[in-house]
Write a structure and sequence with these properties.
Blueprint lengths: L1 H26 L1 E7 H17 L3 E7 L4 H8 L4 E6 H11 L3 E9 L3 E4 L13 E5 L2 H13 L4 E2 L12 E3 L5 E5 L13 E4 L1 H6 L10 E2 L5 H5 L2 E6 L6 H10 L2 H10 L5 E2 L2
Parallel strand pairs: 1-2, 1-3, 6-9, 6-10
Antiparallel strand pairs: 3-12, 4-12, 4-13, 5-10, 5-11, 7-8
Helix pairs in contact: 2-8
Length: about 270
């Protein structure tokens, strides 16, 4: 009987140790959803840093702005890295999700890129300008157009502006709302396109040489639209998440961003 009890206790202890190891192992693994460019590329550098600390980072690439958030809400992903805070706030309100920002990592300046018209000075009356059709990014595009004197928005409208908030349009411009990811492809069909930084990069456009106008790095937009690492509420202080934040804010990542994207991506740390 005594021998049986000893064997039983040994099995219980072994199971406990195995469970403990499994729990520790899972906490050392992160699955992070990201846009292909530049987010997944930046995460690849963070992955190297995390590996040195015993963490495994699995990067899942997405080409849309919805699934990474719903997957983070469900727990399928540990975190995501593709969006700015205004978009996240709107998403939470619309989808009843509970996601929060744990860090702002970088900023991607919006640019106005030439289509059929090659300069702002040559923009004809009635020209067609493509802007993103999602709320927060549309407002950002409209403010960039306003900064060039092309339109004037209603006073105090803020970053919820839509085409309905245009108070003055002296050139009778046609503002065409298009899915953000499609604007670069539509440039040949419009006079100008206002394009998100990441989609410009994917299309081979260089903000420093191809854009006719770019958001100022010290503008309110730059501070408002920093790209964030987001998690489900309650996971902000998770040890692995904090390790990821530290890696993303490292000098190694900062140098990679500065050397790789030629001003199309700007570190916020």
């Amino acid at each position: 009987m005594k021998k049986f009890i000893i064997v039983l206790l040994t099995i219980v202890v072994a199971i406990g140790l195995f469970a403990g190891c499994s729990k520790t192992g899972s906490s050392k693994t992160l699955k992070v959803g990201a846009s292909v460019t530049p987010h997944a590329e930046i995460l690849e550098i963070a992955k190297e840093i995390l590996a040195e600390e015993g963490y495994t980072l699995e990067i899942i690439e997405y080409n849309d702005y919805v699934i990474p958030n719903t997957a983070t809400e469900s727990g399928e992903l540990s975190a995501n890295y593709f969006q700015h805070l205004p978009y996240l706030t709107d998403f939470n309100a619309e989808k009843n999700t509970h996601l929060v920002s744990v860090a702002a990592i970088h900023y991607e300046p919006f640019g106005i890129y030439p289509g059929k018209t090659k300069s702002l000075d040559d923009l004809p009356d009635g020209a067609v300008i493509a802007v993103p059709n999602d709320g927060t990014n549309e407002a950002r595009a409209l403010y960039l157009l306003e900064a060039q004197g092309l339109i004037e928005l209603k006073e105090g409208v803020g970053f919820t502006a839509t085409i309905l908030d245009i108070a003055s349009n002296p050139k009778n411009l046609v503002i065409m709302e298009i899915e953000a990811a499609q604007i670069a492809r539509a440039l040949s069909d419009v006079d100008l396109g206002v394009i998100n930084g990441n989609y410009a990069i994917q299309a081979g456009l260089k903000v420093g040489t191809d854009a006719l106008a770019v958001e100022d790095k010290d503008s309110e937009a730059a501070q408002t639209y920093g790209n964030i690492l987001a998690v489900k509420e309650g996971n902000e202080n998770n040890e692995a998440i904090q390790a990821l934040v530290k890696a993303l804010k490292s000098d190694k990542v900062k140098n990679f961003i500065s050397e790789t994207y030629e001003g199309a991506v700007i570190p916020l740390f």
